[in-house]
Amino acid sequence: MTDPPRRAILDRAWLLMMVPALCWSGNAIVGKAVAGEVPAFALAFWRWVLASAILLPLAWPHLRKDWPALLRAWRVVLALSVFGVAVFNSTLYLAAQSTTAINIVMLQSAMPALIVLASFALFGERVRAAQAIGIAVSMTGALTLVAQGDPAALFRLEFNRGDLWIMAGIVSYAIYTALLRLRPAVHGLSLAAATFVVGAVLLLPFHVGETLAGHPLPLTATAALAIGYVAVFASVLAYLSYNRAVALVGANVAGMSVHLVPAFGTLLAILLLGEMPRAYHAVGIALIAVGIWLAQRGKAGGGNSPSPPPSLET
Question: What are the pLDDT tens digits along the chain (314 aa)?
Fold first, then answer.
């Protein structure tokens, strides 16, 4: 039986939404930092191999029981693995080879709106007024941080092929988030482990092709540290938390956690890099917080969304 403190953590959507944002705030930075040394598909493939190796021992007792349900829902598991594991992360690392980290962060700010569109297109889910206002307010806060308080700066950003890659990636992750409502009735660890393994298998041919084309994975400390970070934090911790948040508050609200990525990136820069806090930092972070609060109130107001899927608990 689960102890109350742990149960409380797993039921607090706002806390769960902070975990992936904190982990993902470093993902674009890591991808950009190693873009010239670690090939994109190598980083994506070994990320999921290591994440699978970490998660499988924890998930195995549940996988033994949930295996029949996962097989029956193989189409859903495959779709989640394609859109949420294989495609999204590969495109992010491909984007990092030819665009800036700030462009990656800025373009990801469009993801909550794309999740709303994906939920409507696939399932006819309509967004409530409070949710729409919350998404708009939160996106305004994210763009305030990206533009450093100067709206004109958004128009001075230059876009290139890498930006097209990241746009493809966020469309893919928006579809993944919307499809989570179709997840089979299995333990959260079982679903995560299955999608991690399938995603790694899907990426293997691309990694092999990349290697044969003259871009092998370098056996360096930098590569090892990068893979370790993206596997442990940006994969295991982030995905388990994100999937659970979607279960609690739905795709449209949970997707707003992406707006926290520039907020956490800003705070980390101030705390770790010694950057000076500015007024726009406070304004942007406050707008993001207010927007998420409004959207969660809109979700709590009722509606006809499907029942939440199972939690991480048995």
Answer: 445 555 566 667 777 888 888 888 778 778 888 888 999 999 999 999 999 999 999 999 999 999 999 999 999 999 999 999 999 989 989 988 887 776 777 677 778 778 888 888 899 887 777 777 877 887 787 777 767 777 877 777 666 788 889 889 989 999 999 999 999 999 989 999 999 999 999 999 999 999 999 999 999 999 999 999 999 998 999 888 888 888 888 877 777 777 777 777 767 666 765 667 777 777 877 887 787 777 666 555 444 344 334 444 43
End-to-end Cα, the chain, rounded Å: 9
Q: With 0-12 CB in 10 A as exposed, 13-18 as middle and 19+ as buried, what is 57?
A: exposed
25: CB partners within 8 A, 6+ apart:
260, 261, 262, 264, 265, 268
**Lookup: tokens for 150:** 């100067």
Amino acid at 283: V
Is the whole model's pTM more than 0.85, yes or no? no
Contacts of 117 (CB under 8 A, 6+ apart): 174
